Amino acid sequence: MNLPRGGGEARRLYIKTYGCQMNVYDSGRLAQLLSAHGYRTTDRCDHADVIVLNTCHIREKAAEKVFSELGRMKQMKARDGGDATFVVAGCVAQAEGAELAARAPFVDIVVGPQSYQRLPELLARRDRRQAAIVATDFPAISKFDDLPANRPEAGAVSAFITVQEGCDKFCSFCVVPYTRGAEYSRPASQVIAEARSCAAAGVREITLLGQNVNCYHGEGADGREWDLGRLIAEVAEIEGIERIRYTTSYPADVNDALIAAHRDVPALMPYIHLPVQSGSDRILRAMNRRHTADAYLRLVDRLRRARPDIALSSDFIVGFPGESDADFAATLRLVEAVGFAQSFSFKYSPRPGTPASVEPQLDDALKAERLARLQTLLNDQQSAFNAACVGREMPVLFERPGRRAGQVVGRSPYLQAVHVQLDATVIGTVQQVRITASGANSLAAEPASPPPVAS
Ligand code: SAH
Ligand code: F3S
């Protein structure tokens, strides 16, 4: 039994998080849930009584990393003569729960993303003499109804709030519909209550999260369905919330209300992560993406008309089954046409159970070559975008001290990291700065007006 040890000493919990921001959010909620059951988090795996790996299944290497990390942690524990309860959570747990328990027999609990609310009970029930407990059902009641209210981390300036989870789009390469389940929107009242408590705790920026965040259609305070544009407008009304972001969007679901929010809601940052995956209509069709390259370009135009300084980022997959040189060239053309501020690009990775995984696969060397070419172009665009900021003034929300003495780090409206020599008292506030230099991944700046002289 995993009750607090003798003398009421808390059991120590170590969580390692892989993958997307939703996993980061989930890990925070897991830690809060378990803290109510006598667990205290530690950042030292070798000290932990319970080790949770919150895993990602989106690409091959992600799952492989989990297996090797599990083996490493187990060895470390054994070397120290200690023992720990091993919990595998997240999307690898959901997709490969049974295989995982067989391949790593020291794993005690496998828990899928929709069953986290059960973890205290599973930990209490765990009996080492039996095989691992595997909890990967999709319950009828949302986990959000059973998890305790979210509290942001102490001192956090920026917080994630999951508003939507799961996906019904079934892109032919993607495991998310299988690992996260059917599309679900949280009621707006839950989201707003969470955003309010974040604001009261000092959070100034909220990022609304969803696998398909812009198909949000939660129940609003008026009993009607609210879309993401409406939800953003309501979150913007909360005192203390100065910035709103959202991720990730599906191009075909960007509606007029969302575009209007970019025009009308000052707190909504001029930045959108809008994965396109490919610039070839033939490949987009094979991916089951429900949008063409041209529709994407028209959408970008509409967003730019509503908010001329909006910056775009995207995800790309190269080497999808059947991708020809001409298809790949179409992707490069789309990238040239848009001009991205930032991007993520991947070699296609066949995922078990997805339709594209059974198609004839492209040679890995060809995928690698295409990825390198695409990344060169995307990196050049990112550097150019950063360089174009030099000399401009912009508001920065300061988040934390920098590595150098007297330095603070914040985010520009376009999500760039900005380093400034300023007193740490600016952390948690938005300050106007002038950009003085740019690098591949960050900017340097000085205060736009000199700080007041202390009397
Ligand atoms: N809408 C989702 C996207 C999920 S995955 C969200 O962000 O929550 C993030 C990105 O990983 C995708 O946009 C896609 O570019 C990439 N990806 C997904 N499955 C992949 C696969 N099988 N191989 C390579 N890349 C993949
Ligand atoms: Fe995956 Fe496509 Fe949904 S990328 S998360 S199936 S929109």
What does this protein structure show overall?
33% of the residues lie in helices and 23% in strands. It is α/β, with parallel strands linked by helices. The chain folds into 3 domains: 11-135, Rossmann fold (3-Layer(aba) Sandwich), CATH 3.40.50; 143-388, tm_1862 like domain (pyruvate-formate lyase- activating enzyme, Alpha-Beta Horseshoe); 393-447, Nucleic acid-binding proteins (OB fold (Dihydrolipoamide Acetyltransferase, E2P)). It has a 6-stranded parallel β-sheet, sandwiched between helices. Strands 17-18-19-21-20 form a 5-stranded mixed beta barrel. Helix 7 runs parallel beside helix 8 and helix 11 runs parallel beside helix 12. Bound molecules: S-adenosyl-L-homocysteine and FE3-S4 cluster. S-adenosyl-L-homocysteine is lined by residues 20, 58-59, 173-174, 176, 211-212, 248, 275, 277, 315, 317, 346, 348-349, 351.
